[in-house]
Amino acid sequence: MPNPVRPAALVLAAALVLTGCGADVASQGDRKSASGAARGHYPVTVENCGEKKTYDKAPQRVVTNDVGITEIMFALELEDHMAGYVMPDDKGDLTSVPWKGGYQKTKWLSKETINKELVLDARADLVFAGWNYGFNEGEGFTPAELQRVGIDSYLLSESCRNGQGKARGVMAPLDALYTDLRNLGRIFDVEDRAETLITSFRKEVAAAQAKAAAGTDRPRVFLYDDGKDKPLTSGAYAGPHDIITKAGGDHIMKDLKDSWTTVGWETVVDRDPEVIVINNYGDTGADQKRKFLKSYKPLANVSAIKNDRIVVLDYVDLVESPRNPAAISSLAAELRKLAS
């Protein structure tokens, strides 16, 4: 049954009441979406992990999982479009980044594992996470499951599965970062911001490469994340690959067509890294990881251990995040120091 037409006087009176109360009828996010629609920006279609996704308007209540993903949103100044973020409190300093204000404005929803109940309680309209960055079939938390309850998903490009089992990665790590910035720029109608960030990041990376030790052999570098029986490390599709390579190093696991994965210690010993980069996070911090590496007998004759050439970078520097370019600059400086 159609709604009856209200008398004009009643409609006018209601409008006056709202105005008199100082009510903001359209939220800032709604106004931005309306502005984008008026300019013909929407609908927009982006490709995310091989799937075409169309958005009729900018999502208004995004929930992000993990620090790198959250900071991608903050770097694009999209706090007003967020319902909150989920991440443990072991992810390093959150106060010295250019977008630290995002943490002050946005609700920290949980320090535990993200799940369907949490995002439903947050009234999320989109979850920005990734495979093994929140999404996990074993936990029953997947884009398909969210879609069944009316919540959309955007997958971190570093985490895209490549068709080889559950192996992840379909493009170079920095390309994954730039792809997500561009896609989100389109989804939220902030393309200029995205392009400004990408241009700035490219310049920072180029400057670091220019300063990398020229005329010298590239030191062999191994990324150690964690693990004693088998080390968790980075393949060609996780952030450390581009960070190591563009900082002037030779990533010894560059032939692994995966992102974060385990290898055998025999492979590490055989490839004899001259520098080891430790991923600093979690209950087992960098000092404990360093002690383990230096005391683990099979590594005793590895060049990096013999010469005590161990560098520490934080987790958020190494996963896909807007901190990747600065991490390249930092590692390039450390490699130059070690080469001198």
Protein architecture, described:
The chain is of the alpha/beta class and 340 residues long. The protein contains 14 helices and 14 strands. The strands form four sheets. Strands 3, 4, 5, 6, 7 and 8 form a six-stranded parallel beta sheet that branches. The protein has a four-stranded parallel beta sheet with strand order 11-9-13-14, with helices on both faces. Strands 1-2 form a two-stranded antiparallel ribbon. Helix 3 links the parallel strand 3 (62-65) and strand 4 (82-86). Helix 7 (173-187) packs antiparallel against helix 8. The longest helix is centred in the middle third of the chain and has 21 residues, at 191-211. The chain starts with 7 loop residues before the first helix and ends with a helix.
Question: How do the helices and strands line up, and which of them pair or pack?
Answer:
Layout: H1 8-20, H2 28-38, E1 44-48, E2 51-55, E3 62-65, H3 67-75, E4 82-86, H4 101-105, E5 108-110, H5 116-121, E6 126-131, E7 134-135, H6 143-148, E8 152-155, H7 173-187, H8 191-211, E9 220-224, E10 232-234, H9 239-246, E11 250-251, E12 260-262, H10 265-271, E13 275-280, H11 286-295, H12 303-306, E14 310-314, H13 315-318, H14 324-339
Parallel strand pairs: 3-4, 3-6, 4-5, 6-7, 6-8, 9-11, 9-13, 13-14
Antiparallel strand pairs: 1-2, 10-12
